[in-house]
Amino acid sequence: MSPLRAAWVGIRRHGLSLFAWFLEFFGAIWLVIEATSFFSAWVRQYTESNTRLLLAALVVAACAALWRARAPVAVVLPLRHSNTQVEVRFGDLFAIRGDHLAIPVNDGFDGALGDTVDRKSVHGQFVQKFYRGSQREFEAACDARLSKAEGVPSGRKGRRLAYVIGTTAALPLEGRKAFLFALSKTDAQTLKASADVPIMWRALDGLWKCVRIHSNGHAVSLPLVGAGQSGVGIEPKHLLRLILLSILVATREGEVCKRISVVLHPDMFEKIDLRAVENDWS
User: Fold this and answer.
1) What is the spatial distance between Cα 193 and Cα 186, in angstroms, rounded to a whole number?
2) Distance between CA atoms of 231 and 281, rounded to whole angstroms?
């Protein structure tokens, strides 16, 4: 995220406060100058005869106000009575190295890109990046980690079994794990995946239970769950709050892992104010 974009978004959000912050910083700077002048004749003489000092103070105060207004690209949120650190940041989920990944999928754990799995969704990108877009390889990897006894007839072509929302398959992934969790239900006729808030809550609950057992305490990163093809239907900032609340509830039941990162797509930068999230969470 470029500093200029962060500054511009921050100015748009805090335009009314920007002038007040400028006056606050300028007042603090000038207070120091006046206090120093009181005890030093040389400083007093210099400040009275040099207008460049005033200009410098104005510039410094303006820069400080702009810095304060800038939109943050990452925040760390404290979880009281827990060793878990929660981070929310903008970036590319698939560029992360070392962390386990939590990937929302449909209840059939489909690998068929196109009508069933949108190529642009996180699910679709995962199949393309780690399984070369191969439906057979992806579904075989999922089946190896899923219990067929837990599946029920889906009533549609292709994947004949559907799994309960929250079912999670922990796939090995280049020295780490990918936690694929069932977030959305697939319509047998239209193949449209859908979810709502209660479904999303159950999905996250199932995810955290699996992460607690299979992550070995290592960090886990996940996207803004519910913002894509599942169509939960609430604003991104509320989706984020729901995810954070699910983490809080899960950690009260027992430590999930040492760090959980919610990675937001840069397209969400103007829709989600991390400063407001941080203030709400403090």
Assistant:
1) 4
2) 26
